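Why this split exists: single-chain examples teach little about how molecules sit against one another. For that reason, every record in the complexes split bundles all components of an assembly together and asks for one structure covering all of them. Below is a record exactly as it appears in the raw files.
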Amino acid sequence: MAATMKDIAKKTGLGLATISSYLNGGNVREKNRIKIEAAIEELHFEVNEVARGLKTNRTKTIGVILPELNIAFCTQIITEVEDLLRNQGYATIICDCRSNEKREEEAVEFLLHRRVDGLIIMPSGKHGSYLKKFISAGKPVVLIDRELEEIECDCVLVDNESAVKDAVEKLILAGHTRIGIIIGPSDIYTAKRRYTGYCMAMEQAGLAVEERLIVRGDYTIEGGAAAMKKLVNKNPDMTAVFVSNCEMTMGAIIEINELGIKIPEQLSFVGFDNLEFAKANIPKLSIVTQPTKEIAGQVFELLLERLEGTDKQKKSQTVKLKTGFIEGKSVNVSGRKEWSSIY
Amino acid sequence: MAATMKDIAKKTGLGLATISSYLNGGNVREKNRIKIEAAIEELHFEVNEVARGLKTNRTKTIGVILPELNIAFCTQIITEVEDLLRNQGYATIICDCRSNEKREEEAVEFLLHRRVDGLIIMPSGKHGSYLKKFISAGKPVVLIDRELEEIECDCVLVDNESAVKDAVEKLILAGHTRIGIIIGPSDIYTAKRRYTGYCMAMEQAGLAVEERLIVRGDYTIEGGAAAMKKLVNKNPDMTAVFVSNCEMTMGAIIEINELGIKIPEQLSFVGFDNLEFAKANIPKLSIVTQPTKEIAGQVFELLLERLEGTDKQKKSQTVKLKTGFIEGKSVNVSGRKEWSSIY
C-alpha cells in the first residue's frame, strides 16, 4: 500500500495543510520542511501527479503542437523549451501535425482533454480559430514563428522581412540582378513576411520583381527540389537564388546536385537555417540563421509568466528577434561579370 | 457547470455502467451508442482524462525517453510511433536526456510520477537498472536500438553487425585495404555491434584490424569531425573510411570539406543514415540506411500487445530488422590502383 499524505502527517505530527503546502511548492518553515522530507524518504511517499491534477486543477503539463517533428528548427527550439520547463517541474506533451490543419485542430482538442496548463504552438493553420476555446478557458497560449491574425496571445517571432531583405541585398551587392527565390506557401505567415523582404530588397535596388523568378514550395525537402527544378527551367539567365527555409534549402541543393549545376560558378546560392548542413556542403553555403536558443528562452519566459506570474490580465506580447547571417563560399562576388557580357 | 456521466445517464435513461463502458471503449449496443453520442453532443460532455486516469489507473499516456531530440533517427521513429499511438487514443510525453545517464534516470522517475502506462526508451545508460522499478510495477517497457543486459523486456533492434560488415565488404571489394572507421562510444550497444561488423569484414578478407585505423567519436556532429581529423592525421595512407552513425557522418564530411580532401579521388567514403544529406552531398554519399518506419511499427505493436493484449505473461521479445544500403558516388571503385604503386 502506497503511503499517503495522511501517513506523512501522522509521522511528522504536522497538519495536512502544511504537508499539502509543502507538496504544492508553498512556504513551509525550515524545521517542518526537514521533518517532511525525512518522512517522505522513510515512507517512500510518491506524489500522485494524476490525483494532484484533479485537486489543484493544474496538471503541470504543457502541450506542444508542431507542424513537423522532423524539422530541425522545431526540434532545436522544443529541446530547449522542454529543458527549461522540466527544471520547473513541467512535463510536455508533444504533438506533430504533419502540417495538416485538421490534425492541428484534433491535437488542440486532445490536449484540452488532457487538461494541459498551457500550450506552445507553431501553427500550421491559417486562422487557428480552434485555439479560442483554449484561450477562453483561461489557459495561456504562446505562438512560435507564426502570427495568427484572429488570435490574441503571446508570440515569439523572428524579423523575417529584414532577414530576407539583408540576404538578398548581399546578392545584389555581389552584382546579381536576376535573383530567383523559393518561397513558402502563400498562406503561411513566415512565407508572406519573407516574400515582402525579397520585394523590398529588389525594389530598393531599382530591380523589377519578376514573377518568373518566384517559385513556391511547401517548406519540405521534396518541395524545395521541385521548386528549384522549375526555377532553373524557367530562367536560363538566373545567376543567383535565395531559398527561404531549412528543408527547401536541402531540397534545392539535392536538385542542383542532380542537375550538375556548379555553385557558385554557375549559380550563386543563399540558403536558410541548418548551420551544420551549410558547413558540410561543398562549397560551404551562405545562410540566414535563426536564434533558436533565444526563441526558446523567450517562449519559456512568456509562458511561465502567464502560468505563475501575478498579473493575470497582462496584455499579450509579441517578441521579435533578429536573425543572423553566416558567410559561406556559395556566392560569386563577381556576379555582374557573367551577364554583363550580354550588353 | 460541466456535464457529468450522471447527466448523460439521466438524459439517455441508461445505467451508469453502460455509459462508463462506452466511455472506456467497451461493448455497447448500437441503439445505446447512438443515444449516448447524441447526449454527449447535446450536453457538451467532455471526458476528463485526468479523472479517468485516477479511476482506471490508466492514463493512456506513454512515456518516451530519447538520448537526443535532435537526432534524425530518433525523431523519424518517434513521429511514426506517436502517430500510431494517437490513433489508439494514447498521448506521448517525450523526454530528451542529452545522452546523459543521470538525466535518463530522472526522466524515468518523472514519468513514473506521471503514471504513464508504458515506456519507450532508447537508452543512453549502460545498465538501465533504474528501469527495474518500472518493470516491477507491471508497466511495459520497449527498448529501441539498444539492448540492456540487465533488463528483460521487449526490444527492437537492427542487425548492426551485418549492416557494417556488408558496407565494409563493399569497400574491400572496391580494392581498399586500409579502411578507417569512426565508431561510437565503447559502452553503447550499437557501437559494440558495429565494431564487431567491421572486424568481421576485415578478418574474413584476411586484412589486419589495425588500431591506428579505429577512432572513437561520441555520436555527435562535433565528435565526427574531430574523429575524422584524427584519422586523417594518423593515417596518410588510408584510402577509405566508414562512419558509423548519422551525426558523425555529417561531422566527418564537414571536416573533409575543411581539410580540402576530395571524395572519392583521395578518399572513399561510406556513411550511415540520413538519406537526404547523402543525396545533397557532392558527390552523393554511399550510406547504410535504417528502416525507421518498420522500427516504429514494431515498437508500436509490441507495446500495444503488452498494454491491451490478453497474455500478460508473454515472454519478452527481441525483434531484429535488416538495414539497407544506398549506392552513391563516394566510393572509388579502383581503390587498389592508388596504393598498388607502393609494391
